[in-house]
Amino acid sequence: MRRRQALQITAAAAALPWTGCGGAPPEPRVEPTTQPLPSAAAPPEPAAPPSATTPATAEAPPEPAPEPPPEPEKPPEPSYSRVLCRVGKNHGHVFEVTLADVLAGAARTYQIAGSSKHKHEVTLTAEDMKTLLRGELLRAKSTQGLTHTHRVHVRCAPAEDPPEWVTVCSAEFTGQDEHELIITAADMDAGADRTYDVQGLAGHAHALTITAADFQKLKKEGAVSIHTSRLEEDSHKHVVIIRYRRPKKG
Question: Composition bias, kind Low complexity: at what positions (predicted)?
């Protein structure tokens, strides 16, 4: 009995905290716990360099739209209103070319019998029509009728003959070759040396030179006689008598 009480008292005393004598009760033993070591932190990324701020620039004005290419220049409209046709050594033949024919530009054959009792034809090609449209003098020849042919002249012209087509002198050639000479009013006024092509309706050409002295003689005496150049083929030349009548004043 006494032993049992003694054991109970001892057990109760062991359960009481230790006090007194200033001593602290022994700390309970703490078992060390193993915890995972923190992983090595990744090195910090380098900071991005500060972006250079470009100063705001004013917007450029829009470029003007390109101008369309200029339209090609149109060729000037011809100032012709008629076509002049001439037949050399004519005996009743009629040769007529209309301006519409020239503008059409197609080759065309013309019957030129007229009042004559025999026939001739004159053919103008497309190239001939272009020549006429450029204002150039066209020389051509008819087909043969009976035993002969005719030389023809064709030219587009304005309503009135220009001054360079108008002669103020008459010219008479020896022979029967139908040569022609045109001396304009401007030529007479200038009175300077000048050489002319005097082919006319003939089949060959000659040159004729009028000197300043010849012009002076024409003005004073009203006439002068001059030789043409010599044709190399047969060495012939012509004497030309030129007459001038001074125009009346006012």
Answer: 50-60
Residue 5: strand, helix, or coil: helix
Q: Which residue has the tokens 């019998």?
A: 113
Span of 11-15, 88-92, 139-143, 218-222 with lowest mean pLDDT: 11-15
**Mean pLDDT of the 36-60 span:** 57
Q: How many domains in the chain? A: 2
Structure tokens at 116: 């004559």
31 in a structural domain = no
What are the tokens at 79? 């100032």
Task: List the beta bridge partners of residue 216.
Answer: none
Q: Cβ distance 84 to 155 under 8 Å?
A: yes
- Residue 21 pLDDT grade (very low, low, confident, very high; cuts 50, 70, 90): very low
Angstrom CA distances, 112 to 49, 85, 88, 100, 122, stand at 101, 11, 12, 18, 7
Using only C-alpha atoms, what is the Rg of the chain?
61
What are the Cα distances from residue 236, in Å, to 198, 204, 229, 233?
14, 11, 9, 8
Q: Are 132 and 139 in contact (CB under 8 A)?
A: no
Asked whether residue 42 is assigned to any structural domain, the reply reads: no
Q: What residue type is 54 in one-letter code?
A: T
CA dihedral 78, 79, 85, 86 (to 10 degrees): -120
Range of the domain at 215: 162-249
Least confident window among 53-67, 85-99, 128-142, 214-228: 53-67
Our measurement of the distance from residue 108's CA atom to the centroid of its chain's CA atoms, rounded to an integer in Å, reads 31
